[in-house]
Amino acid sequence: MAAKIKTIGVLTSGGDAPGMNAAIRAVVRKAISQGMNVKGIYQGYKGLLNEEITDLKARDVSDTIAKGGTLLYTARCHEFRTAEGQDQGAEICRKHGIEGLVVIGGDGSFAGAQQLAARGINTIGVPGTIDLDIACTEYTIGFDTAVNTAMEAIDKVRDTSTSHERCSIIEVMGRNAGYIALWCGIANGAEDILLPESYDYDEQKLINNIIENRKRGKKHHIIVNAEGIGHSSSMARRIEAATGVETRATILGHMQRGGSPTCKDRVYASMMGAYAADLLAEGKTNRVVGYRNGEYVDFDINEALAMQKEIPDYMLRVSKALSI
Ligand code: ADP
Ligand code: F6P
Asked: Which residue out of 16, 107, 131, 278 is catalytically annotated?
């Protein structure tokens, strides 16, 4: 069946995530295979407002699937949060013949897509964030690469922690969500995992746990702390003073966002990008692509943004049981 629209745009917005290039490539090539033209918009909504728009052909996305970052660059754009900015964005889409738009990013970027949809531009969101904090989907592009990068880094810190018989607090990203911390905590065998969703700020419990673990013969004590809690350096100073155990803080930072995407990120990104292009070809709008119960699915953006996501309590309890 012929595509319902002729020209679509694609942009990446918010924090970059490994696999975004694979998603762009999939959007471009699947759209072309459906007979649509594709325009790439640089620097997210900021580039849209500045009309940084280029044609994207199949060869323009060659040799990108293995690359980290985003070939379209990304940005955070305050102006696009305003009604004037959104009106202007929709007008610029129309000026360039862009009838549909794939927005690869997180919740914030989807809120922007929702506004463009309300102004007559068909929009589809693709979940691209290392944080895994989008409620409608079990998977977000970039998470797998980020947790593997963080896991390898924490393994290295652990060697030093053991050699010096130290306590190490390692802070991982995730904004207000604790998924990266939870996954790394389990994968790295951390003694404590601090998540914004469940941490009770009872530092005495942490201190007691470190002292107990020393008595049990543990040589190191790894605390994976989520960015949403933060303050790792001051926490380290207080813990050292209270326990007498040398304590160091390491903040992994933006290294978690870079690097070549894992196989899992490349495959999910390819599938989700292609799915988004198919939705636009069918004339759909205001949808977010997700992955649930083994299938690629899509949701209304309004419904998707209203959904809540919880930290799996069983994973947290298992991590405790395994760290004795
Ligand atoms: P993410 O998409 O990863 O959640 P942000 O929350 O930083 O990242 O959002 C990325 C961009 O999306 C913002 O800089 C802004 O341009 C746009 N955006 C965010 N929230 C809204 C909103 N409520 N309405 C319109 N645009 C928004
Ligand atoms: O959303 C991805 C993320 O890396 C979060 O984990 C973090 O809170 C934020 O982006 C950092 O943003 P910036 O790149 O602006 O420092």
From this structure: 131
